[in-house]
Design brief:
By secondary structure, this protein is an alpha/beta fold. The chain contains ten helices and nine strands. It is globular, with a radius of gyration of 18 Å. Bound molecules: zinc ion. The site of zinc ion (ZN) has 6 residues, from loops. This is Polysaccharide deacetylase.
Length: 271
C-alpha cells in the first residue's frame, strides 16, 4: 500500500505574471526574473528531476509555452505532466467578464494542445483564486481536476458550485465532477522565498525544514495522503535551492512506501 504520495508541482510562470505587476507596472528588471526562470531555473529543476528519476506536473501558462518553447518541450519529452495555468496568467477575479476569462482559458488549452498533442486534464488558477465563473468554465471545458483549493490538507475533495452570500448561511453546494487536489501557501516557495515589495525572504534552511516536517507529519498521521509541493523555477531554481530540494526529495524517497506521481496519476491511484 502507498503510505504517501508526493506531487512535485511546478508553476512555470516565466515572464507572464510580471506583465500584470501592480506595483510600478511591468518593467525590464521584473521581466528578467521571469527570464531567469525560463533560461536557468527550469533547466536546473528538469536536471534534478532527471537525476532523481521523479515525475512532476508543470502548470504552464500559454504565454510561457509560446514565448519559451524549449524548456516546455523538454518537460514534455521527459514525461512530466502539463497542466493548465491560464494563457496570460491573469488572476481569475481580474477578468472583466466571463467571456474574457473563457477566451483566455481556451487560448491556454490551444497552446498546450500545440505542445503536447492533447488537452490538459488539470487546471491550476493563477494566484490560486477563482472568479464567480471559474468553476462553471472548468466544467464547460471538461477539466477532470483542479489544484488550486485549500479545503483539505492532504486529501483530494470534490469541487462544488458554492452558495456564499454575505447575508445568508454558506452552502457547499453540489459536486461538479471535478476533483480538487489541494494546495497550501505553506508548501509554496513563492511567499517564503521570493522577494516581493518590501517583504524580505525567509531563512531558506528553515523553509526546507518546514517542508520536511510537514511531510513527516503527513507520513505519520495521514496514511494514504498526497503531499503537494509548489515550486516556481524563478524561485526554487536559484542557488542553492536545487541542492536543498534534492535533499528534501531524497529524505521523502528514503521512507518505505512513498510514491512520486504526477497529479493525474496520483488521483487515479487514490480514486
Ligand atoms: Zn503562476
Amino acid at each position: 500500500m502507498t503510505r504517501a504520495t508526493v506531487c512535485l508541482t511546478i508553476d512555470f510562470d516565466a515572464v507572464s505574471p510580471w506583465l500584470h505587476a501592480r506595483e510600478f507596472g511591468s518593467t525590464p528588471v521584473k521581466r528578467s526574473r521571469g527570464r531567469f526562470g525560463a533560461d536557468v531555473g527550469a533547466p536546473r529543476l528538469l536536471d534534478l528531476f532527471e537525476r532523481l528519476d521523479v515525475p512532476s506536473t508543470w502548470f504552464v501558462p500559454g504565454h510561457t509555452i509560446d514565448s519559451f518553447p524549449e524548456p516546455c518541450q523538454r518537460a514534455v519529452d521527459a514525461g512530466h505532466e502539463i497542466g493548465h495555468h491560464g494563457w496570460s496568467h491573469t488572476p481569475p477575479s481580474d477578468y472583466e467578464s466571463r467571456a474574457a476569462e473563457r477566451a483566455d482559458i481556451a487560448r491556454g488549452i490551444e497552446s498546450i494542445e500545440d505542445l503536447t498533442g492533447s488537452a490538459p486534464a488539470g487546471y491550476r488558477s493563477p494566484s490560486w483564486d477563482f472568479s464567480a465563473h471559474t468553476v462553471s468554465l472548468l466544467k464547460e471545458f471538461g477539466f477532470e481536476w483542479s489544484s488550486s483549493g485549500m479545503a483539505r490538507e492532504f486529501e483530494p475533495y470534490e469541487l462544488t458550485e458554492e452558495y456564499a452570500p454575505v447575508d445568508d448561511p454558506y452552502e457547499v453546494g453540489e459536486p461538479v465532477e471535478i476533483t480538487e487536489m489541494p494546495v497550501s501557501w505553506q508548501r509554496d516557495d513563492y511567499p517564503a522565498l521570493a522577494f516581493s515589495g518590501s517583504r524580505a525572504f525567509a531563512d531558506e534552511a528553515a523553509v526546507f525544514d518546514h517542508w520536511r516536517r510537514q511531510f513527516d507529519w503527513m507520513y505519520e498521521h495521514h496514511a494514504g495522503g498526497a503531499y503537494v509541493l509548489t515550486l516556481h523555477p524563478q524561485v526554487s531554481g536559484r542557488s542553492p535551492r536545487p541542492a536543498m530540494l534534492r535533499e528534501l526529495i531524497e529524505h521523502m524517497a528514503a521512507k518505505p512506501d512513498v510514491d512520486f506521481a504526477t497529479v493525474s496519476d496520483a488521483l487515479a491511484g487514490m480514486g
